[in-house]
């Protein structure tokens, strides 16, 4: 299993513990899934080797979607994600997590009145 797939799977498992539906790619039918929900988005991986270890630096985008009347629900979900991921213990198959931190978060209103939140997490892993 490649680092990208292992990271995606680990994020999916960790976020499933929040109690909301978690998608790899939210369905397009019915205007996109069971609201509110979390979507594990793009994971960008870069080589980060040292003299003795094979490692990877990655940025993972985690999306939240809500049809609430205000941004609060989306921000609360982002807070739950933060509590679970930031400096957390993420189990990544075949790798050891060195660090994971939230780098940024944002919430915007979508044209249909729903809210879309995006959090970016930066991690560093090494091959086990």
Quick one: how many beta strands? 5
- Helical percentage: 10-25%
Count of separate structural domains: 1
The biggest beta sheet reads: 5 strands, mixed
- What is the general shape? elongated
Question: Which architecture per CATH?
Answer: 2-Layer Sandwich
Average residue pLDDT: 93
Task: Count up the helices.
Answer: 2
Strand order of the largest sheet: 1-2-3-5-4
* Strand composition percent: 35-45%
Secondary-structure map:
Blueprint: H1 3-16, E1 21-23, E2 37-47, E3 55-66, H2 72-85, E4 95-109, E5 115-127
Parallel strand pairs: 1-2
Antiparallel strand pairs: 2-3, 3-5, 4-5
Q: Keyphrases for this structure?
A:
128 residues; alpha+beta; STM4215-like; five-stranded mixed beta sheet; 5 strands
């Amino acid at each position: 299993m490649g680092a990208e797939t292992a990271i995606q799977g680990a994020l999916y498992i960790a976020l499933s513990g929040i109690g909301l539906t978690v998608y790899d790619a939210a369905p397009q039918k019915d205007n996109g899934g069971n609201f509110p929900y979390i979507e594990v988005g793009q994971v960008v991986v870069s080589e980060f080797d040292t003299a003795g270890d094979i490692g990877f630096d990655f940025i993972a985008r985690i999306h939240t979607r809500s049809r609430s009347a205000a941004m609060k629900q989306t921000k609360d979900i982002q807070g739950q994600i933060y509590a679970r991921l930031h400096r957390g213990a993420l189990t990544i198959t075949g790798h050891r997590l060195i660090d994971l931190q939230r780098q940024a978060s944002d919430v915007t209103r979508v044209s249909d009145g729903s809210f879309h939140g995006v959090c970016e997490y930066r991690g560093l892993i090494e091959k086990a």
